[in-house]
Protein: Uroporphyrinogen decarboxylase
Amino acid sequence: MIKNDLFLKALKGETVERPPVWMMRQAGRYLPDFMKLKEKYDFFTRCRTPELATEITVMPIHQIGTDAAILFSDILVIPQAMNIEVEMKPGVGPWLPNPIRTAKDVNNVIVPDIEETLGYVMDAIKMTKQELNNEVPLIGFAGSPWTILCYAVQGQGSKNFDKAKKFCFTNPVAAHQLLQKITDTTIAYLKAKVAAGVDAVQIFDSWGGMLSPVDYQEFSWKYIQQIIDALKDEIPVIAFGKGCWFALHEMANSGASALGVDWTLSARNARYLSGGKITLQGNFDPSRLYSPPAEIKRMVTQMINEFGKDSYIVNLGHGILPDIPVENAKAFVDAVKEYKAN
Ligand code: CP3
Structure:
């Protein structure tokens, strides 16, 4: 049994004395100890070495006190395992030297054997579970097929993923073939993570909001739904779609246990659009962590009052920014722990 089960209770919609809190991208970036490891080992070495991935995963538990851990890894290990080369260029971010641009490129993409290509992730999960000693739950994750396609086709980060959209709209048959291969790989990958011991999984659709509501259904949601269908009877699934407020109704009826929302909608609108029953997770503006700690605490208390303490997981509306002072991240978490329902 996990000692701090607030997060798991919130996922089930059970009554809690206060909501649980964790932060997207909490493992890394803004933590000084992480930066020291970053000087010594490159990104994928950190991902592929279970001892390093474990050490980074537990850092925010010990240093910030979040109620859940998220495994240190990246959504782009999936395209890597599918025969698409991925580099992480310091100062640039993801870099794919041979992006997917044609139907022939899609044919060369494989649906890999998970143990063979991503066994190191399962080793990191098993080691992290031991290290956590049942103190807090461990979250596993994957990118949504659409978000992975964005990087696989664009070849790097982008403000609008124009090349990815062009590929989908000029070559929809090949795009759907690619999305299905990513979906099949992701389902096998998340099932392996569940077998290795994660307590919940989150699907990051970071770029779903780039699509119109109609295109979102066709190129993103359809595939996320397949993943939820395959996992929901085994483990709680959190679906996070940045900018995807227009799809909240559909998402709320998908079998997901919780929905992540960004900071562009009010708690009231998020509850309204999602039908008022499902657990919501979010939605503090990550830039608001630049505010002084006292102001952060005031705003977090207000956010909890607006969402309500039950069926709610306190989080940011997207990943924590790299230059947030550790004491500000701590103020965010402390405000939740000090919360008293009024
Ligand atoms: O939550 C956690 O801290 C767990 C680890 C985690 C990483 N990436 C580590 C990482 C998670 C959950 C991710 C998810 C991820 N990766 C997403 C979805 C969430 C989101 O932010 O939208 C996306 C889009 C990526 C792709 C990616 N990886 C980008 C765009 C970058 C470069 C920019 C950046 O974030 O610094 C990465 C690199 C990356 N992934 C780093 C970390 C800690 C920084 C690089 C490094 O440490 O060398």
Notes: Residues 172-196 form the longest helix (25 residues). The pocket of coproporphyrinogen III is lined by residues 24-29, 38, 43, 70, 72-76, 88, 93-94, 141, 143, 157, 204, 206, 319 (CB under 6 Å). The chain is about 50% helix and 10% strand.
